[in-house]
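User: Sequence recovery, please. Input:
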């Protein structure tokens, strides 16, 4: 699948997503918009890193916008404390969505936002877990992360 866009300065960029996870960052030739000037192959991990670098400053802002746009939903930030039963364990072990109905949408570690963390993402003490749900659901996630 290919996604293209044009920058404000008129340059065309694109991303080609392959079924096996590789993505190609494409820089189109300014003189021939149908021809690429350069293409950079990225692994799934490199794609994730690039999207985090590009999107990290905006994720928390977007969560605030989502909270105000959807009445009844809130975004909460919950710290993983050193004595949390989930410190050092993968997100999937929490079964947070199934147990509480709230969604863990990001984890902030060392000022880096890990958006949409997968079930194998391992929590560390000091992580800030960003949760979206009702006030009751997000409180349940906080209780879960703090006491199991």
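Assistant: Recovered sequence (148 residues):
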């Amino acid at each position: 699948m290919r996604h293209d866009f044009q920058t404000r300065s008129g340059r065309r960029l694109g991303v080609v997503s392959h079924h096996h996870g590789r993505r190609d960052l494409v820089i189109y030739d300014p003189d021939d918009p149908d021809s690429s000037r350069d293409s950079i192959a990225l692994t799934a991990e490199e794609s994730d890193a690039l999207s985090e670098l590009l999107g990290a400053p905006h994720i928390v802002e977007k969560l605030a916008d989502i909270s105000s746009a959807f009445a009844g939903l809130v975004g909460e930030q919950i710290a993983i404390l050193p004595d949390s039963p989930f410190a050092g364990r993968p997100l999937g072990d929490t079964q947070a969505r199934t147990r509480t109905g709230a969604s863990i949408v990001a984890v902030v570690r060392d000022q880096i936002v890990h958006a949409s963390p997968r079930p194998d993402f391992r929590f560390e003490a000091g992580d800030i877990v960003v949760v979206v749900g009702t006030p009751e659901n997000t409180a349940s996630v906080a209780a879960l992360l703090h006491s199991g």
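The chain is about 30% helix and 35% strand.
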